[in-house]
Design goal:
Elements: H1 8-18, H2 26-36, H3 42-54, E1 59-62, E2 68-71, E3 79-82, E4 88-90, H4 97-105, E5 117-120, H5 128-134
Parallel strand pairs: 3-5
Antiparallel strand pairs: 1-2, 3-4
Helix pairs in contact: 1-2, 1-3, 2-3
């Protein structure tokens, strides 16, 4: 792990992410942190997000909206990404350890981390008639 010098801007980015559960993009983070640090650049936000990811303090969540979302919850948990509005949500699922067992059954390498993502329409985006069809 690389040693980092202290940065008030990086700390502000990290604390903003710690308070959020909606997995914001770098642009959203930039707009928020800019209120406290008006001279911060979007490039500085991206560099600090990369550093925080490298040190394991945050995780990057690729999305199908061509934007990357960020999460300060680095614990092993799955995500849901809406294919319509592109929101990213945490999913609460019990005991996913069996997935690692399945992955190792036909794999001789070493798995260091996993990222499980489900795609579909969130509750706000699903069509009202879809619920009736399922029932």
């Amino acid at each position: 792990m690389k040693a980092m010098n202290y940065s008030r801007q990086r700390e502000a980015i990290y604390h903003f992410l710690m308070e959020r559960h909606d997995h914001p993009t770098a642009e959203v983070i930039y707009q928020q942190v800019k209120q406290e640090y008006p001279r911060i650049s979007l490039g500085t936000v991206y560099r600090n997000l990369s550093l925080l990811e490298e040190t394991g303090q945050i995780q990057r969540i690729p999305s199908d909206d061509s934007k990357e979302h960020y999460d300060a919850n680095v614990g092993n948990h799955p995500h849901f990404i809406c294919t319509k509005c592109h929101c990213v949500q945490d999913l609460t699922m019990d005991n996913l350890d069996f997935l690692s067992t399945l992955a190792y059954q036909n794999f001789n390498g070493e798995i260091n981390r996993t990222q499980l993502t489900f795609f579909g329409k969130c509750n706000a985006c699903k069509e009202p008639n879809e619920e009736k069809i399922k029932n």
